[in-house]
Amino acid sequence: MSPRSARLARLSRSVTFSACHRLHSKSLSDEENLKLFGKCNNPNGHGHNYKGKNSLLLSLQIDPVSGMVMNLTDLKEYMQEAIMEPLDHKNLDKDVPYFAEVVSTTENIAVFIWDSLLKLLPAGILHKVEVHETEQNVVVYKGEGAVAV
Fold it and tell me: Has UniProt tagged this entry with the keyword 4Fe-4S (predicted)?
């Protein structure tokens, strides 16, 4: 293989999921939670359509035979297992064990997705996870601060 053929590319794929949650920290009083989270602390929760913007970015060498960095069918299956099955049409706080002890902020949703994908993807290829809660609210997570297990 010539050096010219050893090229890196980044591949991104988006999915859409809908979920409800309540922003509430067990470490705070009800009054403190209401002050911190406002209407998002509604005891009955609230929902979001994380519309088509929840994406991940992989960084890989382009395979000289297939011309791909990864088979998109495989990537779609990984995202189905790591994102759609556990999160889509769920009450994050009640249906996803991870959020029983972790406040279901968009930041923590991005961490959950990152950690879930790391278990499925080939090592070292996940570059970032981007979660758009609304058109205005976006979180990008690149595994910073992760503790090696």
Answer: no
